[in-house]
């Protein structure tokens, strides 16, 4: 097997800046790829959130330029090398575009930044400038989500990118609902041939320009983060969010690869952020974590055997919180306590702070982004609830398995691919699964989980089954390499 020069492009990555699961993926996948012997670069914006001192970022180039909206925008390049051979993380430093309080949204309005078209159009152009300045012409550019969707398009249609003749592209969709759609004028800012913006072409989407569509249309291959989600997004508007037709047209080029888990961060036997370590051979620490969690969120100790249900999530419609709202009264009447951590839509902030006021002994709602709390909730809860309307992969159910926190999930996307419904009689399953997007079904499944919880032996066997499962990146990284090679072969045969 020959090794590859791989450029990953992502708008966020752990540990530098994170809003969701994409950051976990973009943090871990490059490390696994480099460990397999490949030469890997990860590029992302230098946001205000990135701690230059902590991560020892060094300026590697200055006075570079990338053109957007008819302007040559100057930027600098920063670098750091996590301690892995052949891996470097590169940061695009442009204060005007990235030195802001949030990554994608203006907190003063709650809306996306008004110039996201320019910010991420610039980002894609700047990525190519960096390749040139660092003399790093990759075999494959792997872009992620709409923010880097223009890259495959630029390589295919922009004559000024002819210096990448042998670079193939893979475009990963982490969530089809985020599309990077902008008014038609935005197309003019990209400096591309006007005729490319045509109905039913690679950029046009209902008269607007869509960076997501450009990624899907022009990349050599496409993937998403679970096999079920790859099927779902082609199947209907409900899952495809308008892109089902475009995706179906590229069905032969669309794959599903489940995300892995970085067990150096998410494993209770090594986790430095939790009060007591534990693992399948030594479960005692989990009880200490449960007590610590209860104390920390100020839930009363009603009885020791009441299960705590954890929820950690962006508070978005996707995540199924309307189901919780519909049966909130019944849910609060159960012998459970809930700890919820999340930020997002205002309506859900209201919902959960109201519930907390009404049921202070039953629910603690922490409406913030707090990584340390996320670890404590994974470690200290007994169950973890993810009633998602759709879920491309989902990471928290996989973290939960490792922490002995049994997931209760709706059967969709990556949740369907990773969680098998419990059958205590046969001794199978690693979680509790309901199929229909329906509040009663969710409630009944939670009730069933609570019944099983009462039998400590059965519960422990199930916990141990989940804790011993392996969702590490090793297998998924190898699948990505296979896909990169497929994309490279596809491009080579198109040239020949
Ligand atoms: P998505 O990418 O749709 O947000 P995932 O389950 O794939 O969902 O990943 C979510 C990631 O973000 C997980 O690592 C989760 O722990 C983290 N996360 C979400 N909300 C918060 C929060 N409020 N505080 C800390 N971590 C959070």
Describe it.
- The chain has a nine-stranded mixed beta sheet, with helices on both faces. Strands 17-16-15-18-19-20 form a six-stranded parallel beta sheet, with helices on both faces.
- The longest helix is centred in the C-terminal third of the chain and has 23 residues, at about 475-495.
- The chain starts with a strand and ends with a helix.
- Helix 1 (about 20-35) packs across helix 19 (about 475-495), helix 4 packs across helix 6 (about 210-220) and helix 10 (about 285-295) packs across helix 14.
- It folds into two domains: about 5-260 and about 475-495, Glycogen Phosphorylase B (Rossmann fold, 3-Layer(aba) Sandwich); about 285-470, Rossmann fold.
- With about 500 residues, it is of the alpha/beta class.
- The protein has 19 helices and 20 strands.
- A hairpin with a 4-residue loop joins strand 6 and strand 7 (about 110).
- The protein has helices at about 20-35, 95-100, 115-135, 150-155, 185-190, 210-220, 225-235, 235-240, 245-250, 285-295, 320-325, 330-335, 345-360, 370-380, 395-400, 415-420, 440-455, 455-465, 475-495; strands spanning about 5-10, 40-45, 60-70, 70-80, 85-95, 105, 110, 140-145, 170-175, 180, 205, 210, 220-225, 255, 310-315, 335-345, 365, 385, 405-410, 430-435.
- Bound molecules: adenosine-5'-diphosphate (ADP).
- Adenosine-5'-diphosphate binds near residues 22, 312, 314, 370 and 395.
